[in-house]
Amino acid sequence: MYGGRTNQVWKVLGGGGDKVLKLYRATPRNPLFRNDPELEAQCLRALEPTGFVPRLRATGTHDTGHWVFYDHAPGSPWKEGPEDVAELLSKLHRLDAAVQVPEGCNGSTDLAEHTERILSECRSDTRDRLAQLCPAGHVAPTARTCLIHGDTVAGNILVARSGMTLIDWQCPAWGDPCEDIAMFLSPAMQRLYRGSPLNRTEEEQFLTAYDHPETVARFTELRPWYAWRMAAYCLWRIENGAADYAESLELEVAAL
After folding, report:
1. Can you point out the beta strands (E) in the chain?
2. CA atoms within 13 A on the CB side of 249
3. Low-confidence ranges of the chain (pLDDT < 50)
4. Which pTM value belongs to this model?
5. Using one digit for the tens of pLDDT, what is the confidence trace for 30-50?
6. Which tens digits make up the pLDDT trace of 181-222?
7. Residue 86 backbone phi and psi in degrees, to 5
8. Farthest-apart Cα atoms in the chain, separation
9. What is the CATH number of domain 8-71?
10. Where in the chain is the domain with CATH 3.90.1200.10?
11. Helix 108-120, helix 213-239: angle, nearest 10
12. Are 150 and 33 in contact (CB under 8 A)?
């Protein structure tokens, strides 16, 4: 199967329903997206009752890496209707999920430090340009932390008549729900996975449908830091051979 940017994935036909086999590649460490098969398996087990994740069937190791095997989710990657995604993420963020996952960034200081770590791995002249764009001000950490997916791009949200499925749980965290909101609304990620950023109306529809004014207001405050971090990540991807991130980098700089 095609579409993923890190691991190898196969669709396995028949056997009482199609399945997906994901083989985790031992690629260089990604500074933004963790790639942990044990975390994915844990989240799929814990969230199976929700109906919006695939059902895990098995997991194990192979001489080339770890693998997970789960039911194939129907549907196609999300393209339109931001309100449905907002309702899905709001439902996830309200769960009382008993999972052991790493802590995510919380507040502008964490985001700034994370961005600086990403930039420290870059070497081109653009690094200095981005370093000068650090947002001003301070946003304190929130006490409202929860399970977050960590990679809520359009390609990881499958839409079918039966509902929506959130796949690729290899980089979850316990942290600020604004992380998932920022990832979905990111102009860079929307361009890479959908072909174009959301327009202002679509963004407003999403934020209204998320239906948690306090979190939306917090996201608005933190958005410059999320854009700065994503711009740094795009640069890191470009320097590691992903030329298609060049336009996405400029979209994030413009948003910043």
Report:
1. 8-12, 19-23, 56-62, 65-71, 76-77, 146-148, 157-160, 163-166, 173-175
2. 17
3. none
4. 0.96
5. 999 999 999 999 999 999 999
6. 999 999 999 999 999 999 999 999 999 999 999 999 999 999
7. -60, -45
8. 56
9. 3.30.200
10. 76-255
11. 10
12. yes
Residue 65 backbone zone (phi > 0: left; psi -120 to 50: alpha; other: beta): left
Q: Are 253 and 231 in contact (CB under 8 A)?
A: yes
Sign of CA dihedral 233, 36, 87, 5: positive
What is the C-alpha separation between 135 and 179, in angstroms, rounded?
Answer: 17
The sign of the torsion formed by the CA atoms of 75, 78, 84, 90 equals: positive
Based on the number of CB atoms within 10 Å of its own CB, is 131 exposed (0-12), middle (13-18) or buried (19 or more)?
middle
Q: At what angle do helices 187-194 and 213-239 cross, to 10 degrees?
A: 70
String of DSSP letters for 106-172: -SHHHHHHHHHHHHHT--STHHHHHHTTPPPS--PPPS--EEE-S---GGGEEEETTEEEE---SS-
CATH 3.30.200 placement within the chain: 8-71
Domain 76-255 has CATH 3.50.50.60: no
